[in-house]
Write a structure and sequence with these properties.
The chain is of the alpha+beta class and 76 residues long. Helix content is 29%, strand content 28%. It contains two helices and three strands. Strands 2-1-3 form a three-stranded mixed sheet, with no helix packed on it. Helix 2 links the parallel strand 1 and strand 2. The protein is globular, with a radius of gyration of 13 Å. The two termini are 22 Å apart.
Length: 76
């Protein structure tokens, strides 16, 4: 659902997934990495045209109960 929302927000802003330049993912547990990776591969199937991405296994303040958090930057 997150990646569908990211696409919807980019489209609504007049951009698209090609304008997404950077994605920062805070993963709370490495065992849940595929929750992010599998839909990521579907959203960005062209491995030669991917946004920059960094995934950190951390526990940011305020997100102790979550599985992951994501910050997306698009150029509109």
């Amino acid at each position: 659902a997150m990646w569908a929302n990211v696409k919807r927000w980019a489209d609504a802003a007049g951009a698209g997934i090609d304008q997404i330049g950077n994605v920062m993912i805070y993963n709370m547990d490495d065992s849940t990495r595929n929750i992010v990776n599998v839909p990521w591969a579907k959203m960005f199937p062209d491995r030669a045209n991917l946004p920059a991405r960094q995934t950190l296994n951390v526990l940011p303040n305020g997100l102790q109960e979550g599985i992951f958090a994501c910050v997306v930057t698009a150029v509109v």
